[in-house]
Amino acid sequence: MTTGTELINRFEQFASPQLAESWDHVGLQIGNPDRPIQKLMTTLDVRPEIVQEAINQQVDFIFAHHPIMFKPATDLDVRNPQNQMYADLLSHQITVYAAHTNLDTANGGMNDWLADQLGLTNCEPLVAAGQDPFTKQPVGMGRVGQLPNAMTINDFTRYCQSVFGVAGLRLVKPASFNSTIQRVAVLGGAGGSFYQQALQAGADAYVTGDISYHTGHDMIANGLVALDPGHHIEAVVTHRLAELFKQWQLSHHWKFEIIENHINTDPFEFICKEN
């Protein structure tokens, strides 16, 4: 039988916790990783509806991108839905592990998956972060690379909507921009604060989530096109982690079942004005 600890040890050679940002809380979130894994679920988020799905599917290990315990609980009053979720996980002996900014930074991780979706080639890290502690290769958060063909802003906007499967997105468009887009920077999650690195990398456009109002103005002032398709595009992690674990199953002879969560945890919807 394969334990959670065995899986974690293998994963941390791929995306070391040492690559995580200092403010982040990666790694074991709740449960006992020494227990054998019978069924593992991959997911972007761990929310009450995800936990209920895991219980229904008899999952005993949840591997997530977003941590569930950024802030310590001040009490364990289960009238609070977050605390009830912790209680449900413990009572059903479900272990939760999260790989967040370490997976964002690791080579072959989140930002490479997003760059793959965009079809970018000749990619390099957007925000340098030193070396991988195992491979000693350079690592960094975000990617910058080339589209196969240059696009107009309108075409690139529609392209991003299509490849990320979003109903809408926010576009930051400087009035002075009159060129096409071919060199693109992408950073999953909330990457607005790194727009200067996109400029320094010579990006024609920057794709990231959660761009703030004032950062949008700063981007316009600097002549940078930016597209905000939302934080939830990181949901690619659900399928790509499952694929990665299935590859490792073959080489390590792991026998547990792997399933993907398909519940949409995006808290936002686009509401279009009716004519």
From TrEMBL:
Pfam families: DUF34_NIF3. SUPFAM superfamilies: NIF3 (NGG1p interacting factor 3)-like. The keyword Phosphoprotein does not apply. GO terms for molecular function: metal ion binding. GO terms for cellular component: cytoplasm. A divalent metal cation binds at residues 65-66, 104, 231, 234. Keywords: Metal-binding. The keyword Metal-binding applies. Homohexamer. Belongs to the GTP cyclohydrolase I type 2/NIF3 family. This is GTP cyclohydrolase 1 type 2 homolog. It comes from Limosilactobacillus gastricus DSM 16045. The lineage of its organism: Bacteria, Bacillati, Bacillota, Bacilli, Lactobacillales.
